[in-house]
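Narrative of accomplishments. A recurring question from our advisory board has been how the design workflow behaves on a single, concrete structure rather than in aggregate. To address it, we present the structure tokens for one chain from the evaluation set, followed by the sequence designed for it. No filtering or post-editing was applied between the two.
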């Protein structure tokens, strides 16, 4: 179960742990005063299924190098995660 720890930092707790993204991008859309956030993760071949699952459940956008996406997508499918894995 994922839940925000603090509204100011928008940090999400997943299964009692706080996953930290590789990169957080914050921006304000035109004509909008609300800060938007995107948490990005560069997943590698060394990722364990539990780690990838935790990052996906936290809402991170997951990226991988072209040669590593197939394995990571299999992990995603096996764990029934609803996340896209983008190829760099």
């Amino acid at each position: 179960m994922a839940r925000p720890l603090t509204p100011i930092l928008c940090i999400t707790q997943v299964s009692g742990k706080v996953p930290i993204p590789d990169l957080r991008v914050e921006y304000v859309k035109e004509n909008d005063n609300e800060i938007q956030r995107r948490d990005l993760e560069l997943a590698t071949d060394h990722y364990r299924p539990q780690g990838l699952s935790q990052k996906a459940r936290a809402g991170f956008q997951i990226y991988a190098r072209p040669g590593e996406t197939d394995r990571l997508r299999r992990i995603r499918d096996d764990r029934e995660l609803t996340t896209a894995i983008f190829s760099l």
